[in-house]
Amino acid sequence: MAKEKILVIGASGQIGVELTLALRKIYGDANVVASDLREENILLKGTGPYVSLDVMNKEMLHVQVIRQNITQIYLLAAILSATGEKNPNLAWSLNMQSLLNVLDIAREEKLSKVYWPSSIAVFGPTSPKQNCPQQTIIEPSTVYGISKYAGEFWCNYFHNRYGVDVRSMRYPGLISYKSEPGGGTTDYAVEIFYKAKQDKKYECFLREDTYLPMMYMNDAIRATIELMEADAKSISVRTSYNLSGMSFSPKEIAAEIKKHIPEFSISYKPDYRQPIADSWPQSIDDSVARKDWGWKEAYDLELMVTDMLQNI
């Protein structure tokens, strides 16, 4: 097998930092090129090659792919749900054009694989709230969700029409202590830990009973790599796989934190993110991912809270 050379676009973001580090452990530091518009994240400094790159500049991207002998691209650059609602046109153009640029180059250069994340944001108010299945009614209500759903079909199209091996999964809310959240509706579940440690109190922007699908970053990174390393023959979904770790409400995570920090208190002041959260499923059925490539989460709420508080 030819040596893989991987380009991670959006490497300084919440997922990008940890995914880049994990890929470098597997493929070797020099074989994973990190890139972003922002400056290099402090956790990446000195761990391997870094290039400043604007994914919207297709020529620049193409030159890098050829110059670095890239065989795989992980495209993580995106404008997330809550941020996207403030600037819908920008969110649509960045989220769509970046994907089309990458898929086009993958087709031309015959790259071995492409990874592009989708999100639970593809689901809308009409999708089933409990154990939302892989194939169901999908009518997203945010520009982020619309762009992700359109992107899933572009991935499917490039696979069917041009044979591009592009793989995707719908991330739930992701929780991590290594890098700051990026403007998503589920970000309260990261902020709450910082506030619990610093101020012993937190004002949540969602209602106390808002259940959302979540996942600890360690699981999300492992899922991503397992999907990408799975035999192509076992991949039955070329839009995007449902993926699930745990579901909880602000009230439940606060109660779990209180076990470690008894004086912690939480208050609630729902804002514009509440309707976004209300439009999403409360839990996800990911049985197809479990069947196709053996997905299984390692972290539940209790384990995750313990690990987060130890590491923040």
Number of helices: 11
Please summarize the sheet with the most strands. 6 strands, parallel
Helix-strand string: EHEEHEHHEEHEEEHEEHEEHEHHH
End-to-end span in angstroms?
40 Å
Contiguous low-pLDDT stretches (5 residues minimum) are: none
Q: What is the typical, i.e. mean, pLDDT?
A: 96
What's the CATH first level of the largest domain? Alpha Beta
Shape: globular
Task: Specify the structural class.
Answer: alpha/beta
DSSP strand (E) fraction? 15-25%
Strand order of the largest sheet: 3-2-1-4-5-7
List the topology elements.
Elements: E1 6-9, H1 14-27, E2 32-36, E3 50-52, H2 58-67, E4 72-75, H3 81-86, H4 88-109, E5 113-115, E6 118-119, H5 143-162, E7 166-167, E8 169-171, E9 173-175, H6 188-198, E10 201-204, E11 212-216, H7 217-229, E12 241-242, E13 246-248, H8 250-260, E14 265-268, H9 273-278, H10 287-293, H11 301-311
Parallel strand pairs: 1-2, 1-4, 2-3, 4-5, 5-7, 6-8, 8-12, 9-11, 10-14
Antiparallel strand pairs: 11-13
Helix pairs in contact: 1-7, 2-4, 4-5, 6-8, 8-11
